[in-house]
Amino acid sequence: MPESREPGTPSSLSHSETSRRSFDKAVDDATQAIEQARAQIARSKSLGQSEAAQSQEIDRLSSEHERFARGEKDRP
Fold first, then answer.
1. How distant, in Å, are the alpha carbons of 33, 53, 65, 67 from that of 56?
2. What is the Cα–Cα distance from 74 to 67, expressed in whole angstroms?
3. Average pLDDT, the chain
4. Model confidence pLDDT, tens digit, residues 38-63
5. Alpha carbon of 18 to those of 13, 29, 33, 52, 59: distances in Å?
């Protein structure tokens, strides 16, 4: 009795081969999605660090401006 085949699959592929290829593709797609998510997380962390650094620099410049406005140029 010949092995049953799904409609539309090449006769050279068995059902188990087709299932395996489908599974492998799903694993590859999931791996790619995970890699993309990790890259997005890394970009997000980098942006967060950059924003924190900018905020600190703004605070420093603001304090410096206030000291200059009060005539305290030489004090830290």
1. 35, 5, 14, 17
2. 9
3. 86
4. 999 999 999 999 999 999 999 999 99
5. 6, 16, 22, 51, 61
